[in-house]
Amino acid sequence: MKFLCDDSISAIIPPWGGQFLIDVLPLLDWETLRKSGPKWILGYSDTSTLLFSYTLNTGYASAHGTNYCDLSAPKWDSLTAKWVDVLGTAPGGSITQHSSEMYQSSWERAFQNPGTGFYFDTPTEWKVLGREQIPKKKVTVTGRLLGGCLETLVSLVGTPYAPVHDFINNYMKEGVLWYLESAESSAAQIYRALWTMRENGWFERANGILFGRPGYYRDTKNFKLTDALYAIFDPLGIPVIYDVDIGHQPPQMILVNGALACVTVENGKGILEMTFK
User: Would you give the DSSP letter of residue 170?
Assistant: First the structure.
């Protein structure tokens, strides 16, 4: 609360995600925060619990992206470095990010060599669910960005810290463009979390879904991630773009909750344009 209400502090960037950030939410004075004016908060993983609630309960933007510990690298990759540009974009301005060329599939080398940066080893390819065999077909989706880490956000369903329906109603004209990523769940666990969100109406008036590369993921017997995504979102008739640069297999884009976004995917490459209005 002290940091959030201190006008001399421009941004709060936690070192890491954690596990139990939900315990912080009841301790925050939301009425005071609404009166204090906007403050940038940047991070991902369990930090997205705070970002999500902060935007929904105050109406102020928040930035889902690199953690502070990730900035210890001698040189930042082009996507990680975008946090400076994104947080520096003025109200009414726009900023564009492009998908990465390569991503890090495992944290093993990074953990063994702290402070040396990411170890990119796998080509990046954004995919559109159901159109994997026709990657050259361009797909474009727009809407107000909202999302975060699946495992933590699902814990907020039904609580006062996630007034999702108010956000949906406030942006009925633009619609919502959800972004989600998984830290450590199996295909079945991802399905159950998404099912809970859908049945609670979180995906009403959704224009599309951006799903990040899942970390520490495993199939559930013959049930895969794409099966979970298809089962949840195909009845809604909205595009689902997956293996996006979001979450626990870096690098990742900086996505701003509340920003008006336009995402284009073509031939495995993606472009995200955000406008702050």
Answer: H
Total Cβ atoms within 10 A of residue 31: 10
Question: Do residues 228 and 198 touch, judged by C-beta distance below 8 A?
Answer: no
- What would the pLDDT profile of 169-221 be if each residue is shown by its tens digit? 999 999 999 999 999 999 999 999 999 999 999 999 999 999 999 999 999 99
Cβ atoms of 40 and 63 closer than 8 Å: yes
Distance CA 87, CA 10 (A): 10
Q: Please state, in angstroms and rounded to a whole number, the distance separating the CA atoms of residues 31 and 58.
A: 8
Q: Is residue 250 within 8 Å of residue 220, measured between CB atoms?
A: no
Query: Cβ neighbours of residue 124 under 8 Å, at least 6 residues apart?
Result: 99, 100, 101, 102, 103, 243, 245, 268
Phi (first) and psi of residue 271, to 5 degrees: -130, 130
- Report how far residue 180's alpha carbon sits from residue 212's, in angstroms, rounded to the nearest whole number: 6
